[in-house]
Amino acid sequence: VDLSNCSLHDVPPGLAEATTAIVLDLTENPLTTLPSGSLLGFIQLQSLAVPLALECPGGSDAWQDVTVGRSSRLCQGQRNPCNTSVELAWPCPENSVCAPDGPGLIQCLCDSPFHGYKCLREGTFPMLLFGGILGTATVSLSLLLWSTQRRKAKTP
């Protein structure tokens, strides 16, 4: 994706849809910051060119090679932050595994059959119980409202 020399002051919101991009060029733009979540999901990104004033997202540890040119910085070879020997600030909880989610970003995915907050719930979501309670409450409330409000209906 070539967004060089587009007079961008901020990262365009539509960029989030280009998560399959392998090369991204943001050079020659008056960008002052690159928000940390702006490259969320860009796990295939292998080459990123940013203006010289910006650092590579995720820091230099998130990239295999950082080259500084006259007017730009080239970040190449995105590293998997789950395979580093550096202790993660937010390690994944028990019953989950680490997965890359962009330059210097991770996500924790629950192992099967665990789900929910911090992967603490085991099994599947109780769909039948949930649907039964919701359906019963809806029908009961509808019958109550129909019986109390039908006298207010105008008859011709």
From TrEMBL:
<keyword id="KW-1133">Transmembrane helix</keyword>
<dbReference type="GO" id="GO:0045669">
    <property type="term" value="P:positive regulation of osteoblast differentiation"/>
</dbReference>
<keyword id="KW-0472">Membrane</keyword>
<dbReference type="InterPro" id="IPR042350">
    <property type="entry name" value="ATRAID"/>
</dbReference>
<keyword id="KW-0812">Transmembrane</keyword>
<feature type="domain" description="EGF-like">
    <location>
        <begin position="108"/>
        <end position="119"/>
    </location>
</feature>
<protein>
    <submittedName>
        <fullName>ARAID factor</fullName>
    </submittedName>
</protein>
<feature type="transmembrane region" description="Helical">
    <location>
        <begin position="125"/>
        <end position="146"/>
    </location>
</feature>
<dbReference type="InterPro" id="IPR000742">
    <property type="entry name" value="EGF"/>
</dbReference>
<dbReference type="InterPro" id="IPR032675">
    <property type="entry name" value="LRR_dom_sf"/>
</dbReference>
